[in-house]
Amino acid sequence: MTSTSATGHREGYVPFPNDAAEQYRSAGYWSGRALGDLLRDSARSQPQRPAVLSDAAVQSYADLDAAADRLARGLLALGISPGDRVIVQLPNIPEFATALFALLRAGIIPVLTLPAHRRAEIEHLAALSEAVAYLIPDRLGDFDYRELAATVQAAVPSLRHVLVAGEPGAFTALDSVAADEGSLPEVDPSDIALMLVSGGTTGLPKLIARTHDDYAYNATASAEVCGLTPDDVYLAALPAAHNFPLACPGILGTVATGGAIAFTLDPSPEAAFAAIEKHAVSVTALVPPLAQLWSAAVDWEDADLSSLRLLQVGGARLAEVNARDVEPALQCKLQQVFGMAEGLLNFTRLDDPDELVHTTQGRPLSPADEIRVVDAEGDDVAPGEEGELLTRGPYTLRGYYRAPEHNARAFTPDGYYRSGDLVRQLPSGHLMVSGRIKDVINRGGENISCDELEEHLLAHPAVRHAAAVGLPDASLGEKACVVLVVTGELPTVGELKTFLTERGLATYKLPDLVRQADSLPLTAVGKIDKKALRALHG
Ligand code: OOB
Predict the structure, then answer these.
(1) How far is the C-alpha of 185 from the C-alpha of 188, rounded, in Å?
(2) 171 lines ligand 1 (CB under 6 A)
(3) Distance between CA atoms of 335 and 347, rounded to whole angstroms?
(4) Other CB atoms within 10 Å distance of the CB of residue 350
(5) Which pLDDT band holds residue 444 (cuts at 50, 70, 90)?
(6) 446: helix, coil or strand?
(7) For 67, 164, 244, 329, which has the most beta carbons within 10 A of its beta carbon?
(8) Which value, to the nearest 10 degrees, does the dihedral of the CA atoms of residues 250, 334, 278, 70 take?
Protein backbone atom coordinates (compact mmCIF):
# COMPACT_ATOMS: atom_id res chain seq x y z
CA MET A 1 0.00 0.00 0.00
CA THR A 2 1.65 3.25 -1.04
CA SER A 3 0.79 6.07 1.28
CA THR A 4 1.34 8.69 -1.42
CA SER A 5 -1.63 7.53 -3.48
CA ALA A 6 -3.73 6.98 -0.37
CA THR A 7 -3.50 10.67 0.46
CA GLY A 8 -3.00 12.01 -3.08
CA HIS A 9 -6.64 11.38 -3.91
CA ARG A 10 -7.67 14.04 -1.39
CA GLU A 11 -5.91 16.76 -3.35
CA GLY A 12 -8.68 18.73 -4.98
CA TYR A 13 -11.35 17.28 -2.73
CA VAL A 14 -13.46 19.81 -0.83
CA PRO A 15 -14.31 18.26 2.55
CA PHE A 16 -17.29 19.05 4.77
CA PRO A 17 -16.29 21.72 7.29
CA ASN A 18 -15.42 20.24 10.69
CA ASP A 19 -18.34 21.75 12.57
CA ALA A 20 -20.86 20.46 10.00
CA ALA A 21 -19.24 17.02 10.03
CA GLU A 22 -19.40 16.91 13.83
CA GLN A 23 -23.04 17.84 13.77
CA TYR A 24 -23.92 15.18 11.14
CA ARG A 25 -22.10 12.57 13.22
CA SER A 26 -23.57 13.51 16.56
CA ALA A 27 -27.09 13.71 15.11
CA GLY A 28 -26.62 10.19 13.77
CA TYR A 29 -26.84 10.93 10.04
CA TRP A 30 -23.29 9.70 9.58
CA SER A 31 -23.02 6.29 11.13
CA GLY A 32 -19.29 5.72 10.65
CA ARG A 33 -19.89 2.67 8.46
CA ALA A 34 -18.02 2.10 5.23
CA LEU A 35 -20.12 1.23 2.18
CA GLY A 36 -18.48 -2.20 1.95
CA ASP A 37 -19.89 -2.95 5.40
CA LEU A 38 -23.46 -2.49 4.21
CA LEU A 39 -22.97 -5.69 2.25
CA ARG A 40 -21.00 -7.31 5.09
CA ASP A 41 -23.83 -6.73 7.57
CA SER A 42 -26.51 -8.19 5.28
CA ALA A 43 -24.26 -11.16 4.48
CA ARG A 44 -23.80 -11.85 8.18
CA SER A 45 -27.45 -11.57 9.13
CA GLN A 46 -28.85 -13.49 6.15
CA PRO A 47 -26.11 -15.30 4.24
CA GLN A 48 -28.41 -17.56 2.27
CA ARG A 49 -30.90 -14.94 1.10
CA PRO A 50 -30.66 -13.89 -2.56
CA ALA A 51 -28.56 -10.79 -3.26
CA VAL A 52 -28.35 -10.75 -7.06
CA LEU A 53 -30.86 -12.40 -9.38
CA SER A 54 -29.94 -13.08 -12.97
CA ASP A 55 -31.06 -15.38 -15.75
CA ALA A 56 -28.04 -17.56 -15.11
CA ALA A 57 -28.13 -17.92 -11.35
CA VAL A 58 -29.15 -16.63 -7.95
CA GLN A 59 -26.21 -15.21 -6.04
CA SER A 60 -26.69 -15.37 -2.27
CA TYR A 61 -25.46 -12.70 0.11
CA ALA A 62 -22.69 -15.04 1.27
CA ASP A 63 -21.62 -15.56 -2.36
CA LEU A 64 -21.64 -11.86 -3.24
CA ASP A 65 -19.77 -11.04 -0.04
CA ALA A 66 -17.06 -13.62 -0.74
CA ALA A 67 -16.77 -12.65 -4.42
CA ALA A 68 -16.34 -8.98 -3.49
CA ASP A 69 -13.60 -9.86 -1.00
CA ARG A 70 -11.75 -12.02 -3.52
CA LEU A 71 -11.85 -9.36 -6.20
CA ALA A 72 -10.83 -6.67 -3.67
CA ARG A 73 -7.74 -8.70 -2.78
CA GLY A 74 -6.97 -9.34 -6.42
CA LEU A 75 -7.17 -5.65 -7.30
CA LEU A 76 -4.75 -4.79 -4.49
CA ALA A 77 -2.46 -7.62 -5.60
CA LEU A 78 -2.32 -6.06 -9.07
CA GLY A 79 -0.73 -3.05 -7.44
CA ILE A 80 -3.80 -0.83 -7.37
CA SER A 81 -3.69 0.98 -4.01
CA PRO A 82 -6.32 2.34 -1.66
CA GLY A 83 -7.09 5.89 -2.74
CA ASP A 84 -6.31 5.15 -6.40
CA ARG A 85 -9.06 5.95 -8.89
CA VAL A 86 -10.48 3.42 -11.32
CA ILE A 87 -12.80 4.26 -14.19
CA VAL A 88 -15.77 1.87 -14.05
CA GLN A 89 -17.86 1.66 -17.20
CA LEU A 90 -19.84 -1.49 -16.59
CA PRO A 91 -23.40 -1.89 -17.81
CA ASN A 92 -26.29 -3.44 -15.86
CA ILE A 93 -24.82 -6.87 -15.33
CA PRO A 94 -24.25 -8.78 -12.06
CA GLU A 95 -20.50 -8.06 -12.27
CA PHE A 96 -21.36 -4.44 -11.61
CA ALA A 97 -22.29 -5.28 -8.02
CA THR A 98 -19.25 -7.48 -7.40
CA ALA A 99 -16.84 -4.93 -8.85
CA LEU A 100 -18.42 -2.03 -6.98
CA PHE A 101 -18.23 -3.71 -3.58
CA ALA A 102 -14.73 -5.04 -4.29
CA LEU A 103 -13.45 -1.54 -5.06
CA LEU A 104 -15.20 -0.04 -2.04
CA ARG A 105 -13.73 -2.67 0.27
CA ALA A 106 -10.25 -2.21 -1.14
CA GLY A 107 -10.58 1.54 -0.53
CA ILE A 108 -10.05 2.02 -4.27
CA ILE A 109 -12.22 4.80 -5.65
CA PRO A 110 -14.55 3.90 -8.52
CA VAL A 111 -15.27 6.72 -10.95
CA LEU A 112 -18.72 5.69 -12.13
CA THR A 113 -19.16 6.46 -15.81
CA LEU A 114 -22.12 5.44 -17.95
CA PRO A 115 -22.05 2.85 -20.75
CA ALA A 116 -23.10 5.56 -23.21
CA HIS A 117 -20.02 7.67 -22.50
CA ARG A 118 -17.46 7.70 -25.29
CA ARG A 119 -13.89 8.81 -25.88
CA ALA A 120 -14.37 12.51 -25.11
CA GLU A 121 -15.96 11.90 -21.72
CA ILE A 122 -13.84 8.92 -20.66
CA GLU A 123 -10.53 10.55 -21.60
CA HIS A 124 -11.49 13.69 -19.75
CA LEU A 125 -12.62 11.79 -16.62
CA ALA A 126 -9.62 9.44 -16.65
CA ALA A 127 -7.17 12.33 -17.00
CA LEU A 128 -8.93 14.47 -14.39
CA SER A 129 -8.98 11.65 -11.83
CA GLU A 130 -5.55 10.30 -12.87
CA ALA A 131 -7.15 6.88 -12.98
CA VAL A 132 -4.85 3.85 -12.89
CA ALA A 133 -7.33 1.32 -14.25
CA TYR A 134 -10.38 1.09 -16.49
CA LEU A 135 -13.11 -1.54 -16.09
CA ILE A 136 -15.17 -2.30 -19.18
CA PRO A 137 -17.43 -4.95 -20.66
CA ASP A 138 -16.12 -6.61 -23.82
CA ARG A 139 -18.89 -5.27 -26.00
CA LEU A 140 -22.44 -4.06 -25.83
CA GLY A 141 -24.52 -4.30 -28.97
CA ASP A 142 -22.32 -3.13 -31.83
CA PHE A 143 -19.88 -1.27 -29.64
CA ASP A 144 -16.53 -2.76 -28.64
CA TYR A 145 -15.29 -1.22 -25.38
CA ARG A 146 -11.84 -2.79 -25.86
CA GLU A 147 -11.29 -0.53 -28.86
CA LEU A 148 -12.35 2.48 -26.81
CA ALA A 149 -10.03 1.37 -23.99
CA ALA A 150 -7.07 1.11 -26.36
CA THR A 151 -7.66 4.68 -27.56
CA VAL A 152 -8.14 6.02 -24.05
CA GLN A 153 -5.12 4.19 -22.70
CA ALA A 154 -2.93 5.68 -25.45
CA ALA A 155 -4.06 9.17 -24.45
CA VAL A 156 -4.02 8.85 -20.64
CA PRO A 157 -0.62 7.70 -19.36
CA SER A 158 -1.79 6.99 -15.80
CA LEU A 159 -4.03 4.11 -17.01
CA ARG A 160 -1.97 1.00 -16.26
CA HIS A 161 -4.69 -1.64 -16.37
CA VAL A 162 -7.70 -2.39 -18.49
CA LEU A 163 -9.91 -5.06 -16.93
CA VAL A 164 -12.63 -6.64 -19.01
CA ALA A 165 -15.85 -8.31 -17.87
CA GLY A 166 -16.07 -10.93 -20.64
CA GLU A 167 -13.61 -11.69 -23.44
CA PRO A 168 -10.47 -9.68 -22.58
CA GLY A 169 -8.81 -9.52 -26.01
CA ALA A 170 -5.42 -7.87 -25.44
CA PHE A 171 -6.35 -6.87 -21.86
CA THR A 172 -6.93 -8.65 -18.53
CA ALA A 173 -10.07 -10.64 -17.77
CA LEU A 174 -11.78 -9.30 -14.66
CA ASP A 175 -12.50 -12.79 -13.40
CA SER A 176 -8.81 -13.73 -13.58
CA VAL A 177 -7.99 -11.04 -11.04
CA ALA A 178 -9.63 -12.54 -7.93
CA ALA A 179 -7.27 -13.67 -5.15
CA ASP A 180 -7.92 -15.81 -2.07
CA GLU A 181 -5.04 -14.48 -0.02
CA GLY A 182 -4.22 -11.01 1.22
CA SER A 183 -5.59 -8.55 3.70
CA LEU A 184 -8.03 -5.73 3.14
CA PRO A 185 -7.39 -2.22 4.38
CA GLU A 186 -9.21 -0.45 7.17
CA VAL A 187 -11.47 2.02 5.36
CA ASP A 188 -12.00 5.46 6.92
CA PRO A 189 -15.72 6.27 6.64
CA SER A 190 -15.02 9.98 6.25
CA ASP A 191 -12.89 9.26 3.20
CA ILE A 192 -13.97 9.41 -0.46
CA ALA A 193 -15.84 6.22 -1.35
CA LEU A 194 -16.65 6.82 -5.00
CA MET A 195 -17.01 9.50 -7.63
CA LEU A 196 -20.15 10.24 -9.60
CA VAL A 197 -20.23 12.11 -12.87
CA SER A 198 -22.27 15.31 -12.90
CA GLY A 199 -25.30 15.30 -15.17
CA GLY A 200 -24.58 18.94 -16.08
CA THR A 201 -25.86 20.04 -19.45
CA THR A 202 -23.07 22.49 -20.22
CA GLY A 203 -19.37 21.90 -20.62
CA LEU A 204 -17.43 18.78 -19.76
CA PRO A 205 -18.73 16.52 -16.98
CA LYS A 206 -17.43 17.14 -13.47
CA LEU A 207 -16.57 14.70 -10.73
CA ILE A 208 -18.51 14.47 -7.52
CA ALA A 209 -16.64 12.76 -4.70
CA ARG A 210 -18.98 11.12 -2.20
CA THR A 211 -17.75 9.85 1.17
CA HIS A 212 -18.68 6.53 2.76
CA ASP A 213 -20.50 8.39 5.52
CA ASP A 214 -22.52 10.64 3.27
CA TYR A 215 -23.36 8.04 0.65
CA ALA A 216 -24.30 5.35 3.19
CA TYR A 217 -26.74 7.84 4.67
CA ASN A 218 -28.01 8.71 1.16
CA ALA A 219 -28.76 5.02 0.50
CA THR A 220 -30.14 3.94 3.87
CA ALA A 221 -32.32 7.01 4.42
CA SER A 222 -33.71 6.57 0.88
CA ALA A 223 -34.43 2.91 1.65
CA GLU A 224 -36.38 3.98 4.69
CA VAL A 225 -38.45 6.52 2.77
CA CYS A 226 -39.32 3.81 0.25
CA GLY A 227 -40.20 1.33 3.01
CA LEU A 228 -37.73 -1.24 1.64
CA THR A 229 -37.65 -4.62 3.37
CA PRO A 230 -35.61 -7.80 2.81
CA ASP A 231 -38.53 -9.07 0.71
CA ASP A 232 -38.12 -6.32 -1.89
CA VAL A 233 -36.59 -7.01 -5.27
CA TYR A 234 -35.07 -3.92 -6.91
CA LEU A 235 -34.66 -3.81 -10.67
CA ALA A 236 -31.75 -1.69 -11.94
CA ALA A 237 -33.30 -0.52 -15.22
CA LEU A 238 -31.54 2.84 -15.56
CA PRO A 239 -27.74 2.64 -15.94
CA ALA A 240 -26.51 1.30 -12.59
CA ALA A 241 -23.68 3.84 -12.32
CA HIS A 242 -26.17 6.71 -12.10
CA ASN A 243 -26.91 7.98 -8.61
CA PHE A 244 -30.66 7.26 -8.87
CA PRO A 245 -30.49 3.46 -9.44
CA LEU A 246 -27.26 3.24 -7.46
CA ALA A 247 -28.25 4.75 -4.14
CA CYS A 248 -31.70 6.38 -4.06
CA PRO A 249 -32.23 3.71 -2.65
CA GLY A 250 -31.23 1.61 -5.66
CA ILE A 251 -28.56 -1.04 -5.42
CA LEU A 252 -26.85 0.20 -2.26
CA GLY A 253 -30.08 0.83 -0.37
CA THR A 254 -31.38 -2.61 -1.33
CA VAL A 255 -28.18 -4.34 -0.23
CA ALA A 256 -28.21 -2.38 3.06
CA THR A 257 -31.76 -3.64 3.65
CA GLY A 258 -31.06 -7.22 2.59
CA GLY A 259 -33.34 -7.22 -0.46
CA ALA A 260 -32.43 -8.68 -3.86
CA ILE A 261 -31.22 -6.87 -6.97
CA ALA A 262 -31.96 -7.72 -10.57
CA PHE A 263 -30.40 -6.04 -13.59
CA THR A 264 -31.69 -5.37 -17.06
CA LEU A 265 -29.49 -4.15 -19.89
CA ASP A 266 -32.55 -3.01 -21.75
CA PRO A 267 -35.15 -0.79 -20.05
CA SER A 268 -37.69 -1.16 -22.87
CA PRO A 269 -41.07 -2.52 -21.74
CA GLU A 270 -40.50 -5.75 -23.61
CA ALA A 271 -37.29 -6.66 -21.77
CA ALA A 272 -37.95 -4.96 -18.45
CA PHE A 273 -41.48 -6.36 -18.07
CA ALA A 274 -40.09 -9.86 -18.63
CA ALA A 275 -37.50 -9.22 -15.89
CA ILE A 276 -40.20 -7.95 -13.54
CA GLU A 277 -42.25 -11.07 -14.08
CA LYS A 278 -39.30 -13.46 -13.84
CA HIS A 279 -37.73 -12.01 -10.70
CA ALA A 280 -40.93 -10.75 -9.03
CA VAL A 281 -39.54 -7.22 -9.00
CA SER A 282 -41.21 -4.93 -6.47
CA VAL A 283 -39.39 -1.60 -6.92
CA THR A 284 -37.68 0.17 -9.79
CA ALA A 285 -36.70 3.67 -10.95
CA LEU A 286 -37.18 5.34 -14.32
CA VAL A 287 -36.75 8.67 -16.09
CA PRO A 288 -39.98 10.28 -17.34
CA PRO A 289 -39.73 9.24 -21.02
CA LEU A 290 -39.49 5.59 -19.91
CA ALA A 291 -42.26 5.91 -17.34
CA GLN A 292 -44.47 7.23 -20.10
CA LEU A 293 -43.53 4.37 -22.39
CA TRP A 294 -44.11 1.74 -19.70
CA SER A 295 -47.53 3.21 -18.87
CA ALA A 296 -48.55 2.97 -22.52
CA ALA A 297 -47.02 -0.48 -23.04
CA VAL A 298 -49.38 -2.29 -20.68
CA ASP A 299 -51.78 -2.12 -23.64
CA TRP A 300 -49.61 -4.39 -25.78
CA GLU A 301 -47.30 -6.27 -23.41
CA ASP A 302 -48.95 -9.00 -21.39
CA ALA A 303 -46.31 -9.77 -18.74
CA ASP A 304 -47.47 -10.16 -15.14
CA LEU A 305 -46.44 -7.00 -13.30
CA SER A 306 -48.38 -7.72 -10.12
CA SER A 307 -45.21 -7.90 -7.98
CA LEU A 308 -44.42 -4.23 -8.66
CA ARG A 309 -45.37 -2.07 -5.67
CA LEU A 310 -43.39 1.13 -6.25
CA LEU A 311 -42.27 2.99 -9.36
CA GLN A 312 -39.90 5.87 -8.73
CA VAL A 313 -39.74 8.49 -11.45
CA GLY A 314 -37.17 11.25 -11.57
CA GLY A 315 -34.22 12.76 -13.36
CA ALA A 316 -36.34 15.26 -15.25
CA ARG A 317 -39.77 16.64 -14.59
CA LEU A 318 -42.66 14.26 -14.95
CA ALA A 319 -45.55 16.19 -16.45
CA GLU A 320 -48.71 16.03 -14.39
CA VAL A 321 -50.67 14.38 -17.23
CA ASN A 322 -48.11 11.59 -17.35
CA ALA A 323 -47.92 11.29 -13.56
CA ARG A 324 -51.65 10.64 -13.48
CA ASP A 325 -51.31 7.76 -15.93
CA VAL A 326 -48.73 5.76 -13.99
CA GLU A 327 -50.72 4.23 -11.15
CA PRO A 328 -53.79 3.10 -13.12
CA ALA A 329 -51.60 1.66 -15.89
CA LEU A 330 -48.95 -0.12 -13.85
CA GLN A 331 -51.06 -0.80 -10.76
CA CYS A 332 -48.37 0.33 -8.37
CA LYS A 333 -47.56 3.35 -6.28
CA LEU A 334 -45.83 6.30 -8.01
CA GLN A 335 -43.07 8.18 -6.25
CA GLN A 336 -41.58 11.32 -7.77
CA VAL A 337 -37.90 11.81 -7.06
CA PHE A 338 -36.07 15.06 -7.67
CA GLY A 339 -32.41 14.41 -7.08
CA MET A 340 -28.95 15.25 -8.25
CA ALA A 341 -25.59 13.50 -8.22
CA GLU A 342 -24.39 16.46 -6.18
CA GLY A 343 -26.50 15.28 -3.25
CA LEU A 344 -29.93 16.62 -2.31
CA LEU A 345 -32.78 14.19 -2.86
CA ASN A 346 -36.48 14.92 -2.69
CA PHE A 347 -39.13 12.21 -2.60
CA THR A 348 -42.88 12.23 -2.52
CA ARG A 349 -43.75 10.04 0.45
CA LEU A 350 -45.68 6.79 0.19
CA ASP A 351 -48.53 8.26 2.24
CA ASP A 352 -48.67 11.64 0.48
CA PRO A 353 -52.09 12.52 -0.98
CA ASP A 354 -52.37 11.84 -4.74
CA GLU A 355 -52.42 15.54 -5.50
CA LEU A 356 -48.91 16.02 -4.10
CA VAL A 357 -47.64 12.87 -5.81
CA HIS A 358 -49.00 14.04 -9.16
CA THR A 359 -48.02 17.69 -9.01
CA THR A 360 -44.81 17.94 -6.95
CA GLN A 361 -41.33 16.49 -7.13
CA GLY A 362 -41.24 15.58 -3.45
CA ARG A 363 -39.71 17.03 -0.32
CA PRO A 364 -36.17 16.73 1.05
CA LEU A 365 -35.02 13.36 2.29
CA SER A 366 -33.33 14.58 5.45
CA PRO A 367 -34.40 16.84 8.29
CA ALA A 368 -30.84 18.20 8.02
CA ASP A 369 -31.21 19.24 4.36
CA GLU A 370 -31.09 23.02 4.21
CA ILE A 371 -33.02 24.62 1.37
CA ARG A 372 -33.07 28.20 0.16
CA VAL A 373 -35.05 29.52 -2.79
CA VAL A 374 -33.47 32.72 -4.06
CA ASP A 375 -33.90 35.39 -6.74
CA ALA A 376 -31.28 36.54 -9.26
CA GLU A 377 -29.64 38.71 -6.57
CA GLY A 378 -29.33 35.74 -4.22
CA ASP A 379 -32.02 37.01 -1.83
CA ASP A 380 -34.67 34.65 -0.46
CA VAL A 381 -37.95 34.90 -2.39
CA ALA A 382 -41.28 35.09 -0.57
CA PRO A 383 -42.63 31.66 0.48
CA GLY A 384 -44.19 29.88 -2.49
CA GLU A 385 -42.51 32.10 -5.09
CA GLU A 386 -40.27 30.76 -7.82
CA GLY A 387 -36.51 31.00 -7.46
CA GLU A 388 -33.26 29.10 -7.73
CA LEU A 389 -32.80 26.19 -5.35
CA LEU A 390 -29.72 26.38 -3.15
CA THR A 391 -28.93 23.56 -0.78
CA ARG A 392 -26.46 22.10 1.68
CA GLY A 393 -26.74 19.14 4.00
CA PRO A 394 -25.33 15.84 5.23
CA TYR A 395 -25.00 14.26 1.78
CA THR A 396 -24.55 17.28 -0.51
CA LEU A 397 -21.08 18.05 -1.85
CA ARG A 398 -19.16 21.16 -0.81
CA GLY A 399 -17.25 21.38 -4.07
CA TYR A 400 -16.59 19.45 -7.28
CA TYR A 401 -13.37 17.45 -7.39
CA ARG A 402 -10.40 19.38 -8.75
CA ALA A 403 -12.51 22.30 -9.99
CA PRO A 404 -11.65 25.37 -7.87
CA GLU A 405 -12.68 27.94 -10.46
CA HIS A 406 -16.00 26.36 -11.15
CA ASN A 407 -16.57 25.87 -7.42
CA ALA A 408 -16.21 29.58 -6.81
CA ARG A 409 -19.33 30.09 -8.94
CA ALA A 410 -21.27 26.94 -8.14
CA PHE A 411 -21.29 27.42 -4.35
CA THR A 412 -22.13 30.30 -2.06
CA PRO A 413 -19.43 31.42 0.37
CA ASP A 414 -21.30 29.62 3.16
CA GLY A 415 -21.31 26.33 1.31
CA TYR A 416 -24.68 26.12 -0.40
CA TYR A 417 -24.70 24.38 -3.78
CA ARG A 418 -26.36 26.47 -6.48
CA SER A 419 -28.45 23.84 -8.26
CA GLY A 420 -29.52 25.94 -11.25
CA ASP A 421 -33.00 24.48 -10.78
CA LEU A 422 -36.01 26.76 -10.56
CA VAL A 423 -38.45 25.66 -7.88
CA ARG A 424 -41.33 26.73 -5.67
CA GLN A 425 -41.69 25.33 -2.20
CA LEU A 426 -45.12 24.55 -0.77
CA PRO A 427 -45.89 24.98 2.94
CA SER A 428 -45.60 21.17 3.28
CA GLY A 429 -41.97 21.44 2.15
CA HIS A 430 -42.69 19.82 -1.22
CA LEU A 431 -40.90 21.32 -4.19
CA MET A 432 -42.33 21.94 -7.62
CA VAL A 433 -39.57 22.13 -10.20
CA SER A 434 -40.41 24.73 -12.82
CA GLY A 435 -37.32 24.52 -14.99
CA ARG A 436 -33.61 25.21 -15.16
CA ILE A 437 -32.27 28.73 -14.89
CA LYS A 438 -30.76 28.26 -18.31
CA ASP A 439 -33.55 26.27 -19.93
CA VAL A 440 -35.44 29.31 -21.09
CA ILE A 441 -36.06 30.79 -24.48
CA ASN A 442 -35.29 34.48 -24.58
CA ARG A 443 -37.75 35.63 -27.20
CA GLY A 444 -37.32 39.33 -27.90
CA GLY A 445 -36.40 39.92 -24.27
CA GLU A 446 -39.27 37.90 -22.83
CA ASN A 447 -38.39 34.65 -21.07
CA ILE A 448 -40.29 31.49 -21.89
CA SER A 449 -39.77 28.57 -19.52
CA CYS A 450 -39.32 25.48 -21.68
CA ASP A 451 -40.74 23.25 -18.94
CA GLU A 452 -43.91 25.26 -18.75
CA LEU A 453 -44.44 25.27 -22.50
CA GLU A 454 -43.75 21.52 -22.71
CA GLU A 455 -46.22 20.76 -19.93
CA HIS A 456 -48.97 22.56 -21.88
CA LEU A 457 -48.02 20.87 -25.15
CA LEU A 458 -48.24 17.42 -23.52
CA ALA A 459 -51.86 18.09 -22.68
CA HIS A 460 -52.63 18.07 -26.44
CA PRO A 461 -54.23 14.73 -27.39
CA ALA A 462 -51.91 14.18 -30.39
CA VAL A 463 -48.68 14.96 -28.51
CA ARG A 464 -46.70 12.07 -27.00
CA HIS A 465 -43.40 13.85 -26.31
CA ALA A 466 -42.57 17.53 -26.53
CA ALA A 467 -39.42 19.60 -26.21
CA ALA A 468 -39.09 23.35 -26.60
CA VAL A 469 -35.82 24.94 -27.67
CA GLY A 470 -34.72 28.43 -28.56
CA LEU A 471 -33.31 28.84 -32.06
CA PRO A 472 -31.31 31.87 -33.19
CA ASP A 473 -33.42 34.57 -34.82
CA ALA A 474 -32.15 37.76 -36.40
CA SER A 475 -34.84 40.05 -35.01
CA LEU A 476 -36.00 38.32 -31.80
CA GLY A 477 -32.65 36.97 -30.63
CA GLU A 478 -34.33 33.60 -30.15
CA LYS A 479 -37.52 32.13 -31.50
CA ALA A 480 -39.49 29.34 -29.84
CA CYS A 481 -39.29 26.02 -31.63
CA VAL A 482 -41.21 23.01 -30.41
CA VAL A 483 -40.23 19.53 -31.45
CA LEU A 484 -43.06 17.02 -31.13
CA VAL A 485 -43.49 13.27 -31.28
CA VAL A 486 -47.12 12.79 -32.20
CA THR A 487 -49.69 10.08 -32.74
CA GLY A 488 -51.52 10.81 -35.99
CA GLU A 489 -51.32 14.25 -37.62
CA LEU A 490 -48.79 16.88 -36.61
CA PRO A 491 -50.74 19.93 -35.41
CA THR A 492 -49.91 23.10 -37.35
CA VAL A 493 -48.39 26.11 -35.58
CA GLY A 494 -51.78 27.81 -35.89
CA GLU A 495 -53.60 24.90 -34.29
CA LEU A 496 -51.09 24.76 -31.46
CA LYS A 497 -51.39 28.48 -30.86
CA THR A 498 -55.17 28.18 -30.59
CA PHE A 499 -54.86 25.19 -28.27
CA LEU A 500 -52.33 26.89 -26.00
CA THR A 501 -54.26 30.16 -25.95
CA GLU A 502 -57.38 28.27 -24.90
CA ARG A 503 -55.33 26.84 -22.03
CA GLY A 504 -54.64 30.41 -20.96
CA LEU A 505 -51.02 30.70 -22.02
CA ALA A 506 -49.66 34.22 -22.60
CA THR A 507 -49.22 35.19 -26.24
CA TYR A 508 -45.48 35.78 -25.99
CA LYS A 509 -45.02 32.11 -24.96
CA LEU A 510 -46.62 30.69 -28.11
CA PRO A 511 -44.31 28.73 -30.40
CA ASP A 512 -42.98 30.21 -33.64
CA LEU A 513 -42.12 26.89 -35.22
CA VAL A 514 -43.22 23.29 -34.92
CA ARG A 515 -41.09 20.36 -36.01
CA GLN A 516 -41.91 16.69 -36.04
CA ALA A 517 -39.59 13.92 -34.86
CA ASP A 518 -39.97 10.14 -34.59
CA SER A 519 -38.22 10.27 -31.25
CA LEU A 520 -36.35 12.82 -29.15
CA PRO A 521 -32.59 12.50 -28.59
CA LEU A 522 -31.76 11.27 -25.09
CA THR A 523 -28.79 11.74 -22.74
CA ALA A 524 -26.72 8.84 -21.38
CA VAL A 525 -29.26 8.21 -18.63
CA GLY A 526 -32.31 8.78 -20.82
CA LYS A 527 -33.35 12.37 -20.24
CA ILE A 528 -34.32 14.54 -23.23
CA ASP A 529 -31.08 15.99 -24.62
CA LYS A 530 -31.65 19.68 -25.33
CA LYS A 531 -28.14 20.29 -26.61
CA ALA A 532 -28.50 17.57 -29.24
CA LEU A 533 -31.97 18.82 -30.09
CA ARG A 534 -30.76 22.34 -30.78
CA ALA A 535 -27.99 20.94 -32.97
CA LEU A 536 -30.51 18.82 -34.90
CA HIS A 537 -33.15 21.48 -35.42
CA GLY A 538 -31.14 24.69 -35.38
C1 OOB B 1 -30.64 12.93 -11.19
O2 OOB B 1 -29.35 13.36 -11.04
P3 OOB B 1 -28.49 14.09 -12.16
O4 OOB B 1 -27.26 14.51 -11.46
O5 OOB B 1 -28.39 13.24 -13.37
O6 OOB B 1 -29.32 15.37 -12.62
C7 OOB B 1 -29.72 16.35 -11.69
C8 OOB B 1 -30.62 17.36 -12.34
C9 OOB B 1 -31.31 18.26 -11.33
O10 OOB B 1 -30.49 19.34 -10.94
C11 OOB B 1 -32.52 18.70 -12.12
O12 OOB B 1 -32.18 19.69 -13.03
C13 OOB B 1 -32.90 17.46 -12.87
O14 OOB B 1 -31.70 16.73 -13.03
N15 OOB B 1 -33.90 16.65 -12.18
C16 OOB B 1 -35.22 16.91 -12.17
C17 OOB B 1 -35.83 15.87 -11.44
N18 OOB B 1 -34.86 15.03 -11.01
C19 OOB B 1 -33.69 15.54 -11.47
N20 OOB B 1 -35.93 17.92 -12.72
C21 OOB B 1 -37.26 17.87 -12.53
N22 OOB B 1 -37.90 16.91 -11.86
C23 OOB B 1 -37.24 15.89 -11.28
N24 OOB B 1 -37.90 14.93 -10.62
O25 OOB B 1 -31.29 13.17 -12.18
C26 OOB B 1 -31.22 12.16 -10.06
C27 OOB B 1 -30.42 11.76 -9.01
C28 OOB B 1 -30.96 11.04 -7.96
C29 OOB B 1 -32.30 10.71 -7.98
C30 OOB B 1 -33.09 11.09 -9.03
C31 OOB B 1 -32.56 11.82 -10.08
Answers:
(1) 9
(2) no
(3) 7
(4) 13
(5) confident
(6) strand
(7) 244
(8) 0
- This prediction has a pTM of 0.94
Atom of ligand 1 nearest to the CA of 525: 5
- Burial class from Cβ neighbours inside 10 Å (0-12, 13-18, 19+) for residue 422 reads buried
- Whether ligand 1 lies within 6 angstroms of the CB of 222 is answered as no
CA-to-CA distance for 91 and 474, rounded, in angstroms?
A: 45
Q: Which residues, in sequence order, are bridge partners of residue 284?
A: 235, 311
What's the gap in Å between 115 CA and the centre of ligand 1?
Answer: 19
**pLDDT of 245 over the 80 cut:** yes
List strand residue ranges (DSSP E) for 370-512, in order: 370-374, 387-392, 417-425, 431-436, 440-443, 446-449, 463-473, 477-486
From the CB of 526, is ligand 1 less than 6 Å away?
Answer: no
CA distance 78 to 80: 6
State whether residue 367 is helix, strand or coil.
coil
CB 529 within 8 A of CB 522: yes
User: What is the greatest pairwise CA distance in the chain?
Assistant: 73
Q: What is the mean pLDDT of residues 256-277?
A: 98
